[in-house]
Amino acid sequence: MLTGGWQTLGMSSTEHFDVVIVGAGISGIGAAYHLKTLSPDRTFTILEGRGDIGGTWNLFRYPGIRSDSDMHTLGYGFKPWLAEKSIADGPSIMSYLRETVAENGIEPHIQFNQLMTNAEWSSADARWTLTTDNPETGETRTVTGNFLFMCSGYYSYKGGYEPEFAGRGRFQGAVIHPQRWPEDLDYSDKKVVIIGSGATAVTLVPAMADTAAHVTMLQRSPTYVVSAPSVDPINKVLKKFLPEKAAYALTRKKNSGMTEFFYKQTRTRPDRIKKRLLQQVRKELGEDYDVDTHFTPSYNPWDQRMCLVPDGDLFESLRAGTSSVVTDTIETFTETGIQLASGEHLDADIIITATGLQLVTLGEADFEVDGEKIDFAETWSYKGLAYSDVPNLVSSFGYINASWTLRADLTCEYVCRLVNHMQATGTDMCVPMLRATDGDMPRRPFIDDFSSGYMTRMMPMLPKQGDREPWLNTQRYSEDKKLFREGPLDDGVMQFTRAQIPSRA
Predict the structure, then answer these.
(1) Domain boundaries in the chain?
(2) Which CATH superfamily is domain 15-156+360-497 in?
(3) pLDDT tens, position by position, 22-52
(4) Phi-psi region of 104 (alpha: psi -120 to 50; beta: other; left: phi over 0)
(5) Are the C-beta atoms of residues 466 and 403 closer than 8 Å to each other?
(6) CA 36 to chain centre
(7) At 277, which helix (H) or strand (E)?
(8) Which stretches within 39-127 are classed as H helix?
């Protein structure tokens, strides 16, 4: 049975909860755990648009699907990652999430196949009314909640980003986007061309190379690629001498600190870091390999997201000759492959368009506040988790320069502090509002100093950040820990009030 009460609205019954979580992926499952632990007297539900938990890790099924971050930081702070490999595959991550749900009694709180399509806030009632569609039955329902916690990620589940390619209809083989991978795809002894140079392409190449006749990664421009062991050697030693939880906590602290230190170095000493990264690639591939053409980006490290190669598997396949990298632009698809601008033709039986995600704002739902539609691009970002003039709403958006879960965990802690504070103060509305002194703030992108295409395409849809607290989205874990855990809730920007709600007796 789901927790929560029932509220009578006219002739129909609507479930009501103190907190409604949208999405049962890493963020949503973490939100449920934190509410059960830190706000145990609050009722909540999770609205999940699909028929299973897991989000990203349930949706993507392509060969080799794995984390691009170590699991000591992509895992939850409250649940140690105990498997040997720190760079884990998709099925292992799904097992971890299922364990988390089972161990903490979260599944009874999840409503599956409830895709939220509309959210309407009423200040008179101090609550959200959410409309959901069941993708399987077409049924429409409504759920109400005092607080809305969006954990739906930042990309569309309907399909990935696919640029227009000239002549695509001419190609006689299969064209596949990794977001919609066919379960029955047989690529054994086939010539495969993968378009892209991001994390998905870098994962697919070695995973397919052992079976395919040959795999070619076709990129318009290179990406920084760094090799790391799939098993954390320090964690392996720590587990011999410390309890599992202690070893996990220390490894998490080490890895998050090292990641932040490395990122800072890319900002202050980009040339030095670039030289070190390219030296590592040359060591892997040899001095005769054309690293300048195929692995030397035109931008500085971490201006775009870097790709992790566990145990050097990509380099191994390149050395073995089972895969290759071509840096060129596409002129047109042909019946038998891809004609490049250089005049070269890539023969292919299968073409995979690893061209990225189609990004969206807050789960592709429509939002209204007191009858006025919300354009989130016109709002200001409050601490990177809430929106100016939008009451009782927080969204989970992780780091682009570190593991997503580090920030998701902190956001969950902040939400629990927020709802507990409202209960303690007898208020039922919280809304960030610009101060008179904030009127001159420059409108900066939600994520600054990051030029990846999938992010630059999304920036116009996201709120803006200013040049002063709390209108900043710092993307710095060490600062966010203090801000989210210890910073004052009633800070002069987040306004707490009580609605004049008529008696419901």
Answers:
(1) 15-156+360-497, 168-353
(2) FAD/NAD(P)-binding domain (3.50.50.60)
(3) 999 999 999 999 999 999 999 999 999 999 9
(4) alpha
(5) no
(6) 23
(7) helix 270-285
(8) 56-59, 71-74, 90-103
